[in-house]
């Protein structure tokens, strides 16, 4: 971890998929299964192209790329199948990312406000919080599901900071994807990138303020805050 100056902080806002929960493989499984029902064959590499993107925008992406597979197909039906598939998999097989639970506990124990800002629908967020027994740790939980735009638009981060009652400039966004990193920066936050080791480095990695190998390094980083 680079010797980077950390601003005064009042809050830590975590992304969820790929940061708190090892759900990206589960998303890929659900997407591949659902799209296949409509005649669209996707690979894991295909799914990785849209990591961190709101699921309705993922469906729109593949419609624009392969319109021949979407004749007489309702986008909402595809979204519903994918979301149901992810919820089922989270409930039965969801596991935390390395040191995720400990990192959340550490940040809370430091007196920082803890928020969650995710592109996932609320039904998936609730499934993850229940699976990881983390619900009580979060003072604010926000989804981009009903916002006009998902990440990289900053709206979900700005909404989370407002719900926590903190200025974005005094909050950390913890992210793993390019869209999430850009969303945090667009919101004016200090962005910590935690790339998923099972995926390639996100294209926007250089946009982050600091890059750490895992959440195990987050406590030492927060300890540098001038708060």
Summary keywords:
2 domains; alpha/beta; 227 residues; single chain; Rossmann fold
Mind explaining what this structure looks like?
The chain is globular and about 55 Å long. Helix 8 links the parallel strand 4 and strand 5. Helix 3 packs across helix 4 and helix 4 packs parallel to helix 6. The chain is built from 9 helices and 6 strands. Strands 3-2-1-4-5-6 form a 6-stranded parallel sheet. It has 2 domains: 140 residues, HAD superfamily/HAD-like (Rossmann fold); 70 residues. The model has no long low-confidence stretch (mean pLDDT 93). It has 227 residues and is an alpha/beta fold.
Short description:
This protein is an alpha/beta fold and 227 residues long. It is 41% helix and 11% strand.
Overall CATH architecture of the largest domain:
3-Layer(aba) Sandwich
Number of E-type strands:
6
Strand content: 5-15%
Based on CA atoms alone, the radius of gyration comes out at 17 Å
Q: How does the major sheet shape up?
A: 6 strands, parallel
Order of helices and strands: EHHHHHEHEHEHEEH
Low-confidence stretches: none
How are the strands of the largest sheet arranged? 3-2-1-4-5-6
Q: Averaging pLDDT over every residue, what do you get?
A: 93
How many H/I helical runs? 9
The end-to-end span amounts to: 20 Å
Briefly, what CATH class of the largest domain? Answer: Alpha Beta
What share of the residues lie within helices?
40-55%
CATH topology descriptor of the largest domain: Rossmann fold
Global outline: globular
What is the assigned CATH homologous superfamily of the largest domain? HAD superfamily/HAD-like
| Helix/strand structural class | alpha/beta
């Amino acid at each position: 971890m680079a010797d980077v100056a950390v601003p005064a902080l009042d809050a830590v806002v975590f992304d969820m998929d790929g940061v708190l929960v090892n759900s990206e493989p589960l998303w890929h499984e659900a997407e591949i299964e659902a799209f296949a029902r409509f005649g669209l064959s996707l690979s894991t590499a295909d799914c990785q192209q849209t990591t961190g993107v709101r699921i309705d925008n993922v469906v729109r992406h593949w419609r624009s790329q392969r319109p021949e597979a979407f004749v007489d197909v309702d986008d909402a039906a595809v979204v519903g199948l994918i979301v149901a598939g992810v919820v089922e998999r989270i409930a039965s097989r969801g596991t935390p990312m390395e040191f995720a639970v400990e990192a959340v506990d550490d940040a809370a124990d430091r007196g920082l406000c803890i928020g969650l800002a995710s592109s996932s629908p609320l039904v998936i967020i609730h499934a993850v919080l229940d699976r990881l027994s983390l619900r009580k740790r979060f003072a604010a939980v926000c989804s981009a599901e009903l916002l006009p735009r998902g990440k990289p638009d900053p709206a979900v981060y700005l909404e989370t900071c407002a719900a926590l009652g903190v200025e974005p400039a005094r909050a950390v966004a913890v992210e793993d994807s390019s869209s999430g990193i850009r969303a945090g920066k667009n919101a004016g936050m200090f962005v910590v990138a935690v790339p998923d080791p099972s995926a390639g480095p996100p294209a926007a990695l250089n946009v982050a303020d600091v890059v750490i190998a895992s959440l195990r390094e987050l406590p030492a980083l927060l300890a540098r805050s001038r708060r």
